[in-house]
Design goal:
alpha+beta; Type Iii Antifreeze Protein Isoform Hplc 12; 136 residues
Length: 136
């Protein structure tokens, strides 16, 4: 080694400049950026297409009307006109709702008029879909 001192701002001839260290990781990220962007775009496109297909199927799927309970009903209750179709909205026990046909079991009660005069065999829970075997 020589006795010469290096002044600030000067570098040795064999030293690697700080510039090349900065550009190596940056170049790597720039190389990976198109791959990351395209894979994210394609994955998002597949998800969006799946959502679109499921919404389309729901629109064209057949729906059936069933009777659903809004409150619990104990066993042995005779379903009279006053219970099935009350005069006040606050006293509603049953409601008719539409469900997709592929989710029905086939034994559901389809209208409120068909249950008038029948008796419950079992206790019925709130939110339950009423089926024929629950009635006598």
């Amino acid at each position: 080694m020589s006795n010469e001192t290096i002044k600030p701002g000067e570098q040795e001839a064999g030293a690697v400049g700080g510039r090349s260290k900065i550009y190596k990781p940056f170049a790597l990220y720039m190389l990976l950026l198109p791959f990351m962007a395209s894979s994210g775009f394609l994955a998002g496109k597949e998800i969006a297409q799946g959502e679109y297909n499921s919404q389309k199927m729901e629109k064209i799927s057949k729906q059936v009307r069933v009777v659903k309970l809004k409150v619990a009903v104990p066993p042995g209750v005779v379903l009279t006109e006053a219970i099935v179709s009350p005069a006040q909205k606050a006293d509603v026990v049953f409601e008719e709702v539409d469900i997709f046909a592929n989710r029905s079991i086939g034994d559901e009660v389809e209208s409120l008029k068909s249950i008038i005069g029948k008796k419950t065999k079992y206790g019925l829970n709130k939110g339950q879909v009423l089926v024929q075997r629950d009635l006598e």
